[in-house]
């Protein structure tokens, strides 16, 4: 039985992935601030990734085949008007907390040699997101950490996969009231592509049409994407 650890697995994409892996017969462990819905049969560990210290690191009683670093928060608004402490909290949860978590897991030998770590990054790697600079920065930092970790873990043969989902209709949208009624993709629609990519141990996974178009556009029309991002949010930024 494969053992899967998912951060932020109580809702959104993390919950959709937890459900999908559970139906495949996997043993699921969820790390989150809130418990997942009772229909998900899993081992739940309450954990806040913000300012996670070594002393707060849970002792794992199992060794995981797959770790999915999914938990994340955001903050939107005009960059010059946002509270810096709130922006630091975004960095802590989205990136630094996952760094500390993985450090602890590796120190405990809680990831199987030949296993896999997946990072849920963001399509903001390809399209500038000027209303959420701290979020974009945190996901960019997570992306860079994942790339470096891949080389570090070569001796253990632990594969690294980076996932770049586009907009999704999850509780995460509460951070972007400026978007109004515009909705993203249902996370369950992206799960099959993510699971296929992870099964094939792909380094990069673009799970939806938006992420694939933005990835292509970032190579072909990088300047155009920046201008498009400004035009999209111009009324909010001015």
Query: Rg from C-alpha positions?
Result: 17 Å
**What do we call the CATH topology?**
Rossmann fold
- Return the string of H and E elements: EHEEEHEHEHEHH
Structural class: alpha/beta
* Integer tally of domains: 1
Strand coverage percent: 15-25%
Strand order of the largest sheet: 3-2-1-4-5-6-7
Distance between the termini: 54 Å
Structure description:
With 238 residues, the chain is α/β, with parallel strands linked by helices. The chain has a single domain (3-237), classed as 3-Layer(aba) Sandwich (Rossmann fold), CATH 3.40.50. The chain has six helices and seven strands; from the N terminus they run βαβββαβαβαβαα. The chain has a seven-stranded parallel β-sheet, with helices on both faces.
Short description:
With 238 residues, the chain is an alpha/beta fold. It has helices at residues 12-23, 84-107, 133-152, 187-199, 209-220, 222-237, and strands at residues 3-7, 27-32, 43-46, 64-69, 111-120, 159-163, 204-205. The chain is 41% helix and 16% strand.
Keywords:
alpha/beta, about 240 residues, single chain, about 40% helix, Rossmann fold, 6 helices
List the helices and strands and how they pair.
Layout: E1 3-7, H1 12-23, E2 27-32, E3 43-46, E4 64-69, H2 84-107, E5 111-120, H3 133-152, E6 159-163, H4 187-199, E7 204-205, H5 209-220, H6 222-237
Helix pairs in contact: 1-4, 2-3, 5-6
């Amino acid at each position: 039985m494969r053992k899967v650890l998912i951060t932020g697995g109580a809702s959104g994409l993390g919950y959709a992935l937890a459900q999908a892996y559970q139906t495949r017969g996997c043993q699921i462990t969820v790390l989150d601030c809130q418990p997942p819905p009772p229909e998900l049969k899993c081992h739940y560990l309450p954990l806040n990734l913000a300012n996670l210290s070594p002393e707060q690191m849970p002792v794992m009683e199992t060794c995981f085949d797959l770790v999915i670093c999914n938990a994340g928060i955001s903050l939107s608004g005009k960059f010059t008007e946002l509270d810096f402490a709130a922006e630091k909290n975004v960095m802590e949860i989205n990136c630094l907390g996952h760094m500390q978590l993985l450090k602890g897991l590796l120190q405990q030998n809680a990831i199987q040699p030949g296993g896999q770590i997946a990072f849920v990054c963001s399509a903001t790697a390809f399209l500038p997101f000027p209303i959420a600079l701290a979020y974009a920065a945190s996901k960019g930092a997570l992306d860079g950490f994942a790339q470096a970790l891949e080389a570090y873990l070569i001796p253990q043969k632990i594969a690294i996969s980076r996932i770049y989902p586009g907009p999704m209709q999850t509780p995460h949208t509460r951070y972007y009231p400026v978007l109004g009624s515009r909705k993203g993709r249902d996370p369950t629609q992206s799960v099959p592509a993510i699971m296929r990519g992870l099964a094939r141990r792909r380094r990069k996974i673009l799970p939806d049409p938006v992420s694939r178009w933005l990835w292509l556009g970032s190579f072909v029309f990088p300047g155009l994407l920046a201008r498009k991002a400004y035009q999209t949010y111009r009324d909010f930024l001015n």
